[in-house]
Amino acid sequence: MKEIEAEGFKYIYCTRSDGIPLARVVGPQRQEAESLIHGLELEGIEPFMQRQLAQSSDIRLVYVQRFFQPHIADVFYLHWDDGNNLNTLDEKVERGNFTDIDFKNSLLTVYRRIECPNCHLWWDALIVKPADSYWGDSKLFDAKIALRSSSFKSCPNCGASFRRLVAKIFKIQEK
Ligand SMILES: [Zn+2]
Fold first, then answer.
1. Is 96 helix (H, G, I), strand (E, B) or coil?
2. How far is the CA of 129 from the centre of ligand 1 (A)?
3. How many angstroms separate the alpha carbon of residue 171 from the centre of ligand 1?
């Protein structure tokens, strides 16, 4: 994992080969695990996303340090929907020769189980948190939302809006 800055925003970026940097997992049933890396307290990774990170070609695990509690870093999933080759990006991050352009289509998301307000099916999804995602950098946030505005997802079953910004839906029904 590498601390990087892209588009003026700092991430702790985990390449696919970094895997999931967990120092210890607190019990198999826990939704959260804790980790201490680089002196930071890291929020845990949901088991569903642990599986998806190993399989998906359009997301990378990143941590973002909290603005007011910089010793804590929260989990986000950086999602691209432009087909950017993230294995190539991993190499660029390792070598330090990525550019802002590599991150232009990226969007900070979090994992949530969301319910369609119309047909009431539940979905595993990556959603955009409200405006605090980029820690007050509203210009960057607005630019990213504008760039991706036509590609936010509605319910795969009935087409209804989720009434929130959904970047990706995992079309997998897990028990
Ligand atoms: Zn629906």
1. coil
2. 21
3. 13
Query: Residue 13 half-sphere exposure, CB side, CA atoms within 13 Å?
Result: 26
103 phi and psi angles, rounded to 5 deg:
-105, 0
Segments making up each domain of the chain, as ranges: 2-170
pLDDT in tens, 40-95: 677 778 888 988 988 889 999 998 888 888 778 888 999 999 999 999 999 999 99
Residue 99: helix, strand or coil by DSSP? coil
Q: How far away, in angstroms, is 48 Cα from ligand 1 center?
A: 21
CB within 5 A of ion ligand 1: which residues?
Answer: 116, 118-119, 155, 157-158, 160
pTM to 2 decimal places: 0.86
Tokens of 71: 């010793």
Q: How far is the CA of 105 from the centre of ligand 1 (A)?
A: 27
Which residue type, as a one-letter code, is found at position 80? W
For residue 9, the SS3 value is strand
Tell me the pLDDT tens digit for each residue of 3-35. Answer: 899 999 999 899 988 777 654 334 443 333 344
